[in-house]
Amino acid sequence: MRFTGFPDEAFLFYEGLEADNSKAYFGEHKHLYEEAVRAPMTALVDDLGPEFGEAHLFRPYRDVRFAKDKSPYKTHQGAFVERMPGIGLYVEISAAGLFAAAGWYSQASDQVARYRAAVDEDLSGKPLAAVTGALAAAGHTLYGDRLKTRPRGFDDDHPRIDLLRHRSLYVGRRFEPEEWVHTAEARDRVARTWRDAAPLIDWLCIHVRGSELPRR
C-alpha cells in the first residue's frame, strides 16, 4: 500500500484517546487505530524505506510498571529508523499533528561521556555547533534531555556550554494537521526533515556511536 496521507480519523482517534485513555475507549475504536493510524504510518515508512532504511513501529501500549501515570495507551504513534543504538530518525502522529525528528535519543553513560568529550574538543565540537546552528537557522528546533546547570568538569564560560548540557540531542519539526497532511506531501515533509538532519546523524554516529553497555 502506497502512502496517500493521514485521514481526519487519525487525529480524531487521538483527540478521543486524550480525553478517555481507557481500555474501553481503545477497544471500541481499535478499528480506527488500525485503519487510520497504523496502516498509514506503515505505508509512510515503507515508502521512505528505500532511501532511509527500515523502520520499527512502536506499540500503542505504555509501560506503566514504574510510572506514576497509569494511563494504558500512548497518545501518539511513533516509528524509528535506527542507525546505531539510540541514534536514528523518528516520525510521530498525534492529535497535535505530525512530528519528524532525527538524532540521539538514549542516555547511556558511555554515549554521554563520548558526546561531551567530542563537544569539548574544538576539532569535533565546532563542526557540531555549526551543524546545529544551521539547522536552527533553517527552522528546525533543537531538543533533548539537558542539565539545568553545567556538567561536572566544565566551566560556565565554555564556548559550547549549551551543547555540553545535553544528555540526548535531536532536531525536529512539528506540523499542525493542515490539509496537506491528508496527502502524500506529509511523506515529502518527513523526508526533507530527515535529509536536513543527515549531517547531525553523521556526526553522532562518528563521535557518540552506539552504546557499548548491555541493553536491559
Task: Reconstruct the topology from this structure.
Blueprint: H1 8-19, H2 23-28, H3 30-52, E1 56-57, E2 76-84, E3 87-94, E4 97-104, H4 109-120, H5 122-137, E5 141-143, H6 161-164, E6 169-175, H7 185-196, H8 198-207
Antiparallel strand pairs: 1-2, 2-3, 3-4, 4-6, 5-6
Helix pairs in contact: 1-3, 5-8
Structural features, described:
The protein has 216 residues and is an alpha+beta fold. The protein is built from 8 helices and 6 strands, in the order αααββββααβαβαα. The protein has helices at residues 8-19, 23-28, 30-52, 109-120, 122-137, 161-164, 185-196, 198-207, and strands at 56-57, 76-84, 87-94, 97-104, 141-143, 169-175. Helix 1 packs across helix 3 (30-52) and helix 5 (122-137) runs antiparallel to helix 8. The mean pLDDT is 95.
Key structural traits:
216 residues; six-stranded antiparallel sheet; globular; 8 helices
**Helix percentage range:** 40-55%
Secondary-structure element order, N to C = HHHEEEEHHEHEHH
Count of separate DSSP helical elements: 8
What kind of sheet is the major sheet? 6 strands, antiparallel
Average the pLDDT over all residues and give the rounded result.
95
Low-confidence stretches: none
Q: N- to C-terminal separation? A: 35 Å
Strands of the widest sheet, in order across it, are 1-2-3-4-6-5
Q: Over the alpha carbons, how many angstroms does the gyration radius reach?
A: 19 Å
In terms of DSSP E residues, the strand content is: 15-25%
Question: How many beta-strand elements?
Answer: 6
Overall geometry comes to globular
Secondary-structure-based class equals alpha+beta
